[in-house]
Amino acid sequence: MLSNIEIIEIIHAVEGIKQVCSQAVEVSSLDSDFSAKQDVEEIRAQVRRGSILNCERFAEAVLCALLQLQSALRTLISIYCCSFSVNFGLPVPDTQPKKEYRLVTSSEDTFLFSISTVHQLKSQWVAEYDHFQVSCELRYGADVMSVGETRKLSASRNFFDLVVFEEWVEMKKFMKLLPRETCLYIMLYGIEVNQDGRAPEPPKPERSLLAWCGLPLFNSHRQMVQGSRFLGLWSAEVDQKSGPAQSNDAFSCPIVRVQFPEFDCAVSFPEVRKDDIETRKPRLPCLDSVVIQDILDVLEKDPLSVPTTEERRYFWDNRHYIVEVPQLLPKVLLSVQAWSWVHLPDIYFLLTQWKPASPIHALTLLLPLFPDTEVRKAAVKWIKNIGSDELCDHLPQLVQALRFETWEDSPVAWFLLERSLTSVRVAHQMYWLLKQNMENPLTLRRMKLMVRMLLVITGRAFRAIVERQEEHLNDLCIIAETIKDTRESLRIEKLLQELEIVHSSLEESRTCLPLNPAMEVCGVDVKSCSYFTSNTLPLKIVYRSTETAAKLLQTIYKVGDDLRQDMLTLQMIRIMDKFWLKEGLDLKIITFACVATGSRKGMVEMVTEAETLRKIQTEHGLTGSFKDRPISEWLQKHNTSELEYQQAVENFTLSCAGYCVATYVLGICDRHNDNIMLKTSGHMFHIDFGKFLGDSQMFVNIRRDRAPFVLTPDMVYVINGGEKPTKRFQTFIDLCCRAFNIVRQNSNIFVTLFQLMTASSIPGVTSDAVGFIQKSLLLGSSEIEATAHFTRLIEESLSSRFTQFNFFIHNIAQLRFTGDHNDGLLLSFVPRTFTQETDGRIISLGVVDCQKRYEPEKHYTYVVRVIRECQTRSMSVFRTFAEFLELYQKLVRVFPLAKFCPLSRGSIVGRSNTREVALKRKVEVEHFLRYLMTMAEEVSHCSLVYTFFHPLLRDQEGMTMATCKRKSVPQQQVQNATVIRKGTSRIKLSMHYKGGNLLIMVMHAENLFCERKEAPDAYVKTYLHKDVDKSTKKKTKVVSRNSHPSFMELLVYEYPLEVVREKLLEVSVWDYDRVQENEFLGATAIDLWKMNLTRETVSRTQRSFARVRVASSCRCTTMV
After folding, report:
1. Which segments constitute the PIK helical domain (predicted)?
2. How far is CA 99 from CA 103, 108, 220, 227, 263, in A?
C-alpha cells in the first residue's frame, strides 16, 4: 500500500530535488568539508530563486533536499503505523513529557480537521469524472449533527493519480458538545459534466458517491483522535448502516489522508460521576390526567416511531411520572434534546430509576437509535436474566446488535461471550450466526474477533466439534456441486457412491449436526438418501443417530439457496407461537430447524410423516386443487378411527389458523401447494420462505399471490366437517382473530426484531420491511377494528379462486416430477402396509352385500365380511370394484408366476354404475376372494392382502361411510317433515367505548332457524332505545344460506359515555328475502349501564360481550 501513496510532503521533497538538479553546474569536485549545519531555510530559498552558483552551495542544497525527502518518508511511515494495525514502527524521539490529559468539555472551539489528499484513485474514476469532492458528516447513531464539504477539484498525477485538497473543514459543532459515540463519516463524490458540452438548465452537475469511510472520534478509552490518519475507503455498494464506522484495511482500496488537530496532551471525554446522577431526583407534583392520556395514546400508535417536536416535549417534561412503564423508556430517550456530557447525568438518572424492562423489550435499546454505551449497558443488564432457551430464540438479533456497537469492547460482546460458557447450545448457535455475518466486509473484522474469542474461551472440546462439522459440511458441499455437474441418469448412483465415503468417515469420527448439538450422528443411511429435482438439486441426507433405538435423522442439504430468510421466518413463527401459548392458545404449530452454514449453503431438518399439499390433491387428478374432499379423505386414510380423525381435524383447524395469521403478518409469498405440507396427525405447516415481506412471486408479469393468505375450500371442508357451514368455522375465525390480536399486543417486539435485522444483508429485510410489518399489524387500531379487518381477510382469501388456479398451474408445471418408485406397491387408499402379525390371521372372506352410494358421485360398494383368528366377532369392510381391481393388479405384479381368478379390466358397453353391472361384478369378486384364500400361504396371507382388508374409518362407521351417504330424501318429503332444531339460537357481540364512540362488533350467530327455508339469509339490526324515530338503526351485511353466520362487522354510535349508559341496546336477527317480507328470527335487549364499556376485549368474558339468546318469533326475548 505504501508504494502507491505519495503524500504532499513527498511531492514537495521531490519537487525540491528536481529544482536543485535543474540548476546544477559543471564542477570537478565537491568540498568534502562543507558543513551540514548551514542555514537550511536559506539554502531552500536560494534553490527556489535559482541562485546556487558554486559546488559547495549545490552540495548543501542536495543534502537539504534529501533530508526533506527522508523526513517525508518518515512522516509517511509514521502515519501508516498510526492508521493500521502493524507489527513495526519508528523509534520515538525523547521529548518533553506531555500533560496527562485534558477534558474535551473545556474546549470552546468548534470541531475541525483537514482533508489533505485522496490516493489510489481508480482509473475508471479519473476517466469518467472531471472533478471530485469530499463531504463530511458528524453522526450520532442515526442522527446527522453537522455537515461539511470541500471544494470541487480535479485529479492530478505525479507518480500516481491523486486529488490534493489540502483544505480545513470546519463542522458547526462545538467540541464540548460532542457525544462520546460521535462518528465522522467521509464520503468521496465524483462530479460529471454534460458530455455534449452544453450547460445544463439549471446548471447542476451530477454527483455520484464513489467511496466512503467512518471513524469514531473517541476510542473505547474515551480519548479523542489526534494527528494525521490514513483512512481506507469502502466502495459505494457497501451499506453505511450495515456495520460500525471504520476504515477499509484492503490493500488496493482508495485512501484519504485526514489531519486532526494535535494537542500537547491527550483529550478525553469525561466520565459521569455517580454523585452527579444521585443528586438529580426532582420533586414531583401531581400529573394532569389529560397529559397521561396523551402520552398513552402516542405509545399506542407506534411505540418506536421518532416523536415529533410536540411529543418530545410531552415525554421529556413528564419523564419522571412514567418511570413505572418500561415500554415508554425508548420514547423518552428519543425525546432527549442532546447527548452531550452536560445532559448525561439527567439521562443516566432515568436509567437508575426506570422500572426494568423484560429481557425481550430491552432489545429495543440495542437498536442503532441508541448508541450511548450506558444505555446499552442497562439493556444488557436487563437481558442478563433471560433463560438459555429464550436467549436462543433471540440470539440472531443479539448478534446483529454487535454491528451497532461503536467499539469492539462492548457490553453486548461481553454478554454473549459470558453466556456461551453457560450453554453448549448457545455457543453452538452463536458460532454459526457469527459465521453468517462474515459475508459483510464491515462486520468481517468484528465477527472474526468474536469467533476467535468464542473458540478460545469454550475450550478444545468445542473447537473439535465445530472443526468436525466444518469438515463434514465441506464434504457435502463438494458432493452437491458434483451432483449438479453429473448427467441426470447417473446422479443417484454417483450420490450413493460419494455418500458411502461420508458414511465411513462418520463411522470413524462421530459429529453433531449444525441443526442442533444434541443431534450426534455416527453414519449415513445411504440407501434412504436421494436428491430433489428442483433447480438447486438439494440433497436428502438421512443420518444414523448415536442413540440406541433412535429414529433416523432426515435432513436436506442445500447449495444455491439463501437460507437466512427461512431462518428469520421460522424464528418469528416460533416467537409468535410462544406468545400464543403464554396466552393459553395452543395452535399446534409445527416448525423445523434450519441453519445457514455459509454463503448460499445450509441444512434443513425434514419433518417426518408429512406430505405436500400438491401430492395430496393430485391423488384426485390434475384438477384435485379445485375439489373439496382431497384433504379430508387423506386425513381419513391416515386416521382410521373416528377418535383419531376428529383429533386430526382439530389439529388441522388450529394449525391452519396459526399459519394464516403468521403468513399474513410476515407477508409470506410463493405459496403454491408444494410449499404447504400436512402431517398425518393433521398438523399443517408451511415450508420454503424465500419470498416474504410482500415480495410476491411473478408469473409473466402476473402476481401469483393475490390472496392475503392461503385458505381454500378443501381446507374449509375439513374445518366444517362437510360442505355446509357449521359452528366450527366460527371457532376458526375466532382463533384467527384472537391469534392476530395477541401478535398485535406484542407489535413492539416484532418491530424491534426486524429493525435489528435491517443491517443483516438478508434479501428483502430493509426499512421498508419494518414498515410492512407495522402496516400488517394495524398499529393504532383497536382490537375490535383489527378483528373486523382480519375477518374481511378470511373472506377475501376464501373467495379468491386464484389460489386454486395457482395450485393447478403448479400441478401442470410439476408433471415431469410426479411418481415415486418407492410407492409403487402401496395401495392408493391405505397409507401404510399391514401384515398378519399386526392385524391377526384371516380365516375367511365373503361378500355379503352390494350397496349404492351417492357421494362424491353415484357408485356401488361391496360389503366384505372378514373373520380373523384373534376376533370373536366378524367385521365388515367396504370396498369398491376399482379398489378390488387395484389389489388384483398389484398382486399380479408381486407374484407374476401365480394364477389368480381374473377380474374384468375392460369397460362395459353402456352405463357401468347400474345395479345389473354391480351384481355381475359381485360374482367376480366372490370368485376372486374364494380362490385367493385357497392359494399358497405366501400369496393369500401376504402384506398386500392384509393391507387391503385393514379396517378403515369408513368401515368403523358401519353402514354409513365417512365420505359417502345414502340417496337423499326427496325435497317434498323434507318440506312436509317436522324439523327438529338442535341447540339454542345465540349471538355473540363485543362492545367497547373508546374515543367518544360506542363500538359494537357483531361477531357470530349460531343455530338460526327459518320456517320458510332450510338456512336463512341472516342479517342483524341494532337500536339504541329510547328511539322513537328509529334514527339509531344500524344493520349488518346479509350472510346467505347459513344457519351459523359470521358477520364480524363493526357498528359505531357517536354518543357521549354518559348518554350511552342510559340507553338500552336492542339486537334483532332477520332473514332477508327479495320478494316476501323479511322474517323475524329473534331479538334481545341489553342494559348498557350494566356493562363495563371502558374495557375492550373479544374474549369470552361477561365484561366485554354478551352471549345472548335469540328468541324465535313465537317466544319472548330473554338474555343469558
Report:
1. 281-457
2. 12, 19, 20, 17, 10
